[in-house]
Amino acid sequence: MTVIVVMGVSGSGKTTVGTELAAWLGVDYAEADSFHPKANIDKMSSGHPLNDEDRQPWLEAIAAWISDHQASGGVVTSSALKYRYRDILRGGGDVWFLHLHGDRELLASRMKTRSGHFMPVSLLDSQLADLEPLRPDEFGIVADISRTPEEIVDTTLSAFKDRR
């Protein structure tokens, strides 16, 4: 089965949409942040962006989760900012991307109002600079985060059902 990767920069609503989507589909859900080694969380918490070397074991762990869920399907979040990061995730098996996208002001506003998250607003611009849009060889859709989570899930379920 296909695993849906809910992607986007910090503050885009990956957790909210991902958990609701998994519930609708009746599949397992995994939060990408839980795959980060402590060193990555410490680095981001101190205001320093991750580099490709930092992200490699994190992406490989998510790809392993995707591989483990090929029989049952699943939903996992990941910023998946760059094409080559998504390529690592695709190495885990059949994936379909839901890219949550919105303007910087809305993203920053969301980041400022959430509590208990390690990612500071100061790292938003580095994520936006790294973000590469989905390419034609990547299956999925882009959803506008100004819509409600319910609207995004409805659109996603319809597009996912009609995929390929």
Automatic annotation (TrEMBL):
It catalyses: D-gluconate + ATP = 6-phospho-D-gluconate + ADP + H(+). The keyword Zinc does not apply. It comes from the Bacteria. Gene3D superfamilies: P-loop containing nucleotide triphosphate hydrolases. The keyword Transferase applies. InterPro entries: P-loop_NTPase, Therm_gnt_kin. Pathway: Carbohydrate acid metabolism. Pfam families: AAA_18 (PF13238). Keywords: ATP-binding, Kinase, Nucleotide-binding, Transferase. Its EC number is 2.7.1.12. It is an enzyme of class 2 (transferase). Belongs to the gluconokinase GntK/GntV family. PANTHER family: GLUCONOKINASE-RELATED (PTHR43442:SF3). This is Gluconokinase.
